[in-house]
Amino acid sequence: MTPVRFASLLLSSLLFCTPLPAKERKGEQVESLNGKWDFTTDSQVATSASGTWDKMEVPGNWDTTPQYSTYRGTAWYRREFTVPAEWKGKRVRLKFDSVYHIAEVTLNGQVLGKHVGGYTPFAFDVTDTVRYGGSNTLLVSADNSYKRGAWWAWGGISRAVSLIANNDARIVWQHITADPNLATGAAPIVIQYKVANSSDKPLAVELVSQITGVSIAPLSVKGIVPAKGETILEARAVLPKKDVRLWHFDHPNLYACETTLSTGTTVLNSASDRFGIRKVEVTKDGLFLNGEQIRAGGYNRVSDSNKTGSTEPDSLVKGDVDLMKKSGAVIARLMHVPLAPNLLDYLDEKGMLIFGEIPVWGDNDPQKVKDNPRTRQWLKEMIERDYNHPCIIGWSPGNELTWHMDYIASMKDYILKELDPHRLVSYASFTASRKEYNPTNDPVSVVDLAMLNTYSGNPASFAGAAAALRSKWPDKALFFSEYGDGQIGGGLDARIKNIDGIWAAIAKNPWVIGGALWTFNDYRSDYKGTPASGNREWGVVTVDRELKAAYWQMRRLYSPVHSIRADNGVLTIVPRKRSEIPSYTLRGYTVQWKLLDAAGQTASQGSLPVPDLAPDTPAWTTPIPGAKNAASLSVTLVTPTGYDVADWNSAETKQP
């Protein structure tokens, strides 16, 4: 197997799948500015001492309120706050986790600056602008006029706002790369640190990193950080085989890297990040995770809720991921924009393979310019923040562009040379299968994996698209980054027409990795073709996350086994064939069974371990104790992460 390139990096830190609480960073104090802010869409009110302001929650989107539900343009947020007097002498930053889409920030009448881009964090040094121990006035304008794609341009301060006080030196980020040697079982670890020094003198520092739950000594490195400058330092180690637990979507093992920054005996700052150890490879034959071929399905999920906009509260994020996982989702591009950190954390913990993408979308997108500084900025902000997430196996600079060879090639070059040389780079195309696009003018030639968006109710369209790409790029595996037919309706009885035929056509060719249905959820939109409901009804769940009939269609298609039954009290699991999607080896699965008596009461129940089942292996059978005497029997296949992904009930099979 000769890989085109490998992405052998994992990020997320927690050992063995238990979420870690947020660590307080040493030498750092944080004050949240979340809560109720003053709000107006009237520029005169915003710039005068008089006038009436409304109230708006931060984080939040103004479009979730009745009064401003359709407002498109600039709005202003204002709030008063006090900076602790003891912070004087520290370096103080004002950080926004995201504001959509153009933000201009003024503090105490002084313009701090502007940020363009609605999904990534930015910050200002306000050390010399804040009033210590006194009142401060913060004014933020947010403009949501810019729009790409069919999703709603939710306006406002959509993520957290905070004040952060540090010593003169701090850890800007630490990036952990773990590249397992599958032959020996060991895993070389490389940690890169970006350290900033705000003082007027060069500073001698030492970084010490402890990886939790391993036997090796802490990693350390010493260096000099220039005055009012930054530097990159690096530490290396090798984890022995006994300490290596590979990250996999069914076994999302996570580690923590806890680092201190010191000068002499004084600790200046600390950082804690999660990471994982896994190897991702792509060849012309497909996708390989930790040396095993993976073929699987998933969804595109729009970061959207009529109640919470694009703010992504934990309850929504976890509920959506759980529903996707219960229906067998493994791989997806997921969304056209950088994802919320809490969503990435949960994907790390529960196991899913995704691509991180920036919002460059459509044949007329003004950003598809070679070496575009704005898209470079978006990629930099996304990748520097999200580098340590093992769920991310690749990066994408855009979606459904046209005549975009120079743009994609330049963004790939930038990613690999300056941001992340370890992951895959691709993009989502909808033109690569067309006759006018070929290896001389389409960037499929320069990326690691072909990703194609295809929509049709005719299975032959998918087979034809796959054949066209293979004839032009015989060295590329293919992933259908979006597939579907059309909007299916918002009712709970909505189904996807001919989905069995479409999915069979996608699975037909062994070099096709899989596909991600558009979409998991219905979402708000004003794009052409949106129904009167104001929601684009592509989803297998409604905007309120009610399950449509389509959800159960997809759960059946994405089931990791061909079938599970327990006729006459004998459990039978038939594995998938390699020619099917999904197809991957099942390890650590269990079957939960329950027997009911004639009165419908539980007579007994239990759990059975399932042996490892690889594609194309024979059916596995085993008797269920006491099942022959039961009135009814149910069996459920459960993943190692606790999701029930397939089931069977004898009572249902007896119904006419």
Overall mean confidence score, pLDDT: 95
First CA to last CA: what distance? 51 Å
Assigned CATH architecture of the largest domain: Alpha-Beta Barrel
Gyration radius, to the nearest Å?
26 Å
Which bin fits the share of residues in helices?
Answer: 10-25%
Strand content: 35-45%
Which stretches of 5+ consecutive residues score pLDDT under 50? 1-21
> Helix segment count?
9
DSSP strand count: 39
Main beta-sheet strand count, sense and barrel state? 6 strands, antiparallel
Shape: globular
Protein name: Beta-galactosidase/beta-glucuronidase
Domain Glycosyl hydrolases family 2 sugar binding: 32-164
Pfam family, one: Glyco_hydro_2_N
GO biological process, one term: carbohydrate metabolic process
Which helices and strands appear, and what pairs or packs with what?
Blueprint: E1 5-7, E2 28-32, E3 35-40, H1 43-47, E4 54-58, E5 74-82, E6 91-96, E7 102-107, E8 110-116, E9 122-125, E10 135-143, E11 161-166, E12 169-178, E13 187-197, E14 203-211, E15 219-225, E16 229-239, E17 255-263, E18 266-275, E19 280-283, E20 286-289, E21 292-294, E22 296-300, H2 314-326, E23 331-332, H3 341-350, E24 353-357, H4 373-386, E25 392-396, H5 405-419, E26 424-425, E27 428-429, E28 450-455, H6 459-472, E29 478-484, H7 499-507, E30 512-518, E31 523-524, E32 535-536, H8 549-557, E33 561-565, E34 570-575, E35 590-596, E36 602-609, E37 620-623, E38 632-638, E39 644-649, H9 650-653
Parallel strand pairs: 22-30, 23-24, 24-25, 25-26, 27-28, 28-29, 29-30
Antiparallel strand pairs: 1-19, 2-11, 3-4, 3-5, 5-10, 6-9, 6-11, 7-8, 7-10, 12-13, 13-16, 14-15, 14-17, 17-18, 19-20, 20-21, 31-32, 33-34, 34-37, 35-36, 35-38, 38-39
Helix pairs in contact: 2-3, 4-5, 6-7
